Amino acid sequence: MASHPLHQLQDLQRRTGTDENALPCVRPRKTDELQVHWASSTRPQPSGRPKISTMRTSLLAALLAALARAAPSVTIQNGTIVGTSLLGVDSFKGIPYAKPPTGTLRLRPPQTIDTSYGTITSNPDPLACPQFYEQLSTSKIPESILAEVLDSPAFQVAENTGEDCLTLSVQRPSTATSDSKLPVVFWIYGGGFEFGSTNIYDGTDFVTKSIELGADVIYVAVNYRVSGFGFLAGSELAAEHSTNLGLRDQRLGLQWVADNIAAFGGDPDSVVLWGESAGSISVFDHTVINGGDNTYKGKALFRGGIMNSGSIVPADPVTAPQAQTIYNAVSTAAGCGTGANSLECLRNVSYSTFLAATESVPGVFGYRSLDLSYLPRPDPGDNFFAQSPELYLKSGEYAKVPVIIGDEQDEGTLFALSLSYITANAEVINYLASYFPNNANAHRDMTEIMATYPDEPLLGQPHGSPFNTGSLNNIYPQYKRLAAVLGDLTFTLMRRYYISLIWQDVNVWSYLNTYFHGTPVLGTTHALDVLVDYGDGPLELTLNTNAVQEYYISFINHLDPNSLGTSAPLIEWPKWSHSSGKPQLLDFGATSLSLITDDFRSSS
């Protein structure tokens, strides 16, 4: 039997005298395929800091001839897909899973493809769904770290966009056959339900790691509609059940996997969801959609979930005042007014007109920050997502699958950057209370909460976030306090609440990332974990990349992050439990892994 290309590579390194320890970056990354829109007005020059999966062009050129193989092809229900193969990983990108949501299908649920598309060739740069373009002020971020911060997917918005975007990508070990029955991980990207695409992420490094571990996985990533194209609400859309379209896209993508992944060598009965930020919230939502019924054709669509920075997001119905206000603003900006025919008008205006209209409301990096304009909202008239998601948990209506869930230490710093106009404690309280327009006691509640975050601007808000940084990093008087409370309310509190409702019924493992603790202003902020998880972080965090990938691959294969072994530097990751003492988290630190109790700031 021919040896695996990774083994060929190692042999080539030995024969050519190349020090394999000096070549830690032989895995391909996404850079050459990606065009991005930088959210800052100017992109800084790269800092020169080496990244884990950076590939030398000369090395790649030397290896191509030795490692090339015939273009792989897979035949599924709708046709044949011809992919590409490199370094032991086959890639099939830009596979349509739904009809183009254009014309009369704009602002409607995704439609299954019911015709053959013959033979299609893998597209390394498929259209991303229309993005919400906005500017983030970076004037308060030191130039020395700006390049690294902007390398995060949280700041990358694809430019190659269009409405015909409902595609997915499949990446697999090149040794896979239709009989392999490999476990599948289904990636859902984040981006505040405003932006994101499969192009920003490449599963090559992750699949390669699974091969190295002898625990092969298949990686699937789904494009879904975001911003006003995917999450516009209002009574007009509710009347025809055309709500939560981005979630419906994801669900149809999962059904595509159930119908077709076996042809790629995957096991449709062994699918694990994985998402970050809005993608993580989506993973949770899929456990409660249809009242927790996650079956399709009598079988479960997934058997586990990995949730990075996001879970429960309580929300008012699609017809509530805030949702209707956003619909009215978008429709008015598009020239369609707010009358009975406004929805039909929105379907008929030009793409550029509708795109501009969807950007006429506040964005996640704007003055409303995490009070999102676009997000999943309950539609009581439709069983798909009929009530605020926490209500499903309280009644036990959720898919009882094991999960990994965790946060960054400083989740809120990124979202507090744009709130420098808030300079006093009273303004903080008023701002946060405005997040809860239906709570008559919101001002009182926020006053009590903020009393647990000491207001010490002259000392640099030493109790704020980035945490444990003393007087440093308080770039405006209330920055660190706002960052702390935004991160705790949105992420830490919701994670703990979610786990408290499920841990006795399902296995849960939880974590905290602290490895970017020393980053000025931001600390270990939201979305920086994606760089590490995908092998694109700095070289000094190789430990964390290897660890998190091994834990996740173990979970995808065995529904237990410890099953592949926990020899050093890995440690045994305990389940989250109140059964014997305080629950524990796995802390991914800068130089080591450790266990900590999940009780920090519990009095807040």
Description:
With 604 residues, the protein is an alpha/beta fold. α14 (425-433) crosses α15. The relative contact order is 0.11. The protein has a domain at 5-401: Rossmann fold, CATH 3.40.50.1820. It starts with a helix and ends in a 7-residue tail after the last strand. Residues 1-50 and 54-58 have low confidence and may be disordered. Helices cover 29% and strands 15% of the residues. The strands form 4 sheets. Strands 4-5-8-10-9-11-14-15-16-17-18 form an 11-stranded mixed sheet, with helices on both faces. It has a 3-stranded mixed sheet with strand order 2-3-6, with no helix packed on it. Strands 1-7 form a two-stranded antiparallel sheet. A hairpin with a 2-residue loop joins β2 and β3. The chain is built from 18 helices and 18 strands. It has helices at 5-16, 57-67, 143-150, 204-212, 227-231, 235-238, 245-260, 278-288, 321-333, 342-348, 351-358, 389-394, 413-416, 425-433, 442-450, 479-502, 529-533, 542-558, and strands at 36-38, 73-76, 79-82, 84-86, 89-96, 118-121, 156-158, 167-173, 182-188, 218-222, 266-276, 295-296, 299-300, 304-308, 403-408, 508-513, 584-588, 593-597.
